[in-house]
Amino acid sequence: MKKYLLLAVFALLCCSFIGVSAEEITLWTIATESDAFHPAYIRAIEEFEEANPDVTIKMETFENESYKTKIKSAVAANDLPDIFFTWGGGFSSAFVESGKVLPLDAYYDAYADGITKAALGNVIYDGKLYGVSYVTPVSVMFYNRKMFEERGLTAPETFEDWVTVCQAFLDDGVTPIGISVRDTWVLAMTHDALTLKSAGPQKVAAALKKEGQSYNDLDFVAATEKLMELVDMGAFVGSATGISNDEASQLFYNGTVAMFTTGSWMAGSIQTDPENPEDFDVAPIPVINPENAKITDFMGGASDTLMVSASTKSPDLAAKAAFEISRAVSKYAYLSGAGVPAWTVDYDASEVNPLTQKVADYAKNATSFTLWFDTLMEAEDAGEYLSLLQELYVKNITPAEFAELMAEQLEN
């Protein structure tokens, strides 16, 4: 025992003598163990630590909704980790304005061949780069192709088609669409997409960014009315207000419901969670008003990002880790089917599952990307939006009242 103790002490003294010491970088993400991106993060961190043996990356994970509160509180208290996951656009604008985020322009050139400034557009504020994106997620409609084919149905391209499909399932005693209202962002996925396909990308962006477009507009009201038409006909699972996203997703995976609108990351989960992943397919969200929107207009874009705290004790190392972990997550998330890469694909991706390849094609050929409402809007507006959306779903307010209240919020 004494022998091993002496050896340990000797090793420590040697390390101190030659100046070798492990440095720890703390990273916050929402890549929990049940999240489709968790394996990609783990592999990315392992690679970074192998290439930098004197560095340890300590990843701490948090659930999506609770994290939004945590990260805002951490910014306010100046208690950020070295690197933190966040969303670009309006969500992080206050973080940047507060001076709590490290500009990354000085580090970008070393990685310019792998990711373009265009791909980083949602994390550029006042001409400066403040984050590193890794995927280009979009909202799409996943559906159980086997259940569709058994009833002679095809993926809907217009809202009228969608209602017809829903009615066919209802007539057969099957709930058409899975959704979570408790995890409000899941409900917002459907509402945002319907609004985009009614008002179009220009009007949506102008309204949410307060650029002269009122939310109290017939095209916005029409989208909300369409959402409530689906609610009224019983298209959504009846337990929606009480179940989480994970629970709602399971109802889709096990064939209880036939459709699920969410981000493209579900393509990866479909490879592991359902018993028969080959039964599933994906399609764009149907169009409501073809005069304003195209089937190739998508909610989403490169907004998932890693930022570096301005107060980190190791800015050069943290910036390097942010770029290299982001690049590796982009790669491994794509290979596993969890995400559409924002970084250049300079590796063999021939084995990527067909669903993810299909969504990647959607992103490649998209006519527009519009960030999700709660990302594009400023944080205070986003919080009110999600609260109003829940009130709308349970019919405490009408579509017209929802539009009026949103307009008032965005005018403040």
Major sheet: size, sense and barrel closure? Answer: 5 strands, mixed
**What fraction, in percent, of the residue positions are helical?**
40-55%
Low-pLDDT runs of 5+ residues are 1-20
Count of beta strands? 13
Q: In percent terms, what proportion of residues is strand?
A: 5-15%
Strand order of the largest sheet: 2-1-3-12-6
The second-level CATH architecture of the largest domain is 3-Layer(aba) Sandwich
Q: What's the arrangement of secondary structure elements?
A:
Blueprint: H1 2-18, E1 23-29, H2 38-51, E2 55-61, H3 64-76, E3 83-87, H4 90-97, H5 105-108, E4 124-125, E5 128-129, E6 132-133, E7 139-144, H6 145-150, H7 159-171, E8 175-178, H8 184-199, H9 201-208, H10 218-232, H11 245-253, E9 257-263, H12 266-270, E10 280-283, E11 297-299, E12 304-308, H13 315-336, H14 354-364, E13 368-370, H15 373-376, H16 379-393, H17 399-411
Parallel strand pairs: 1-2, 1-3, 8-9, 11-13
Antiparallel strand pairs: 3-12, 4-5, 6-12, 7-9, 7-10
Helix pairs in contact: 2-13, 8-9, 8-10, 8-16, 10-17, 16-17
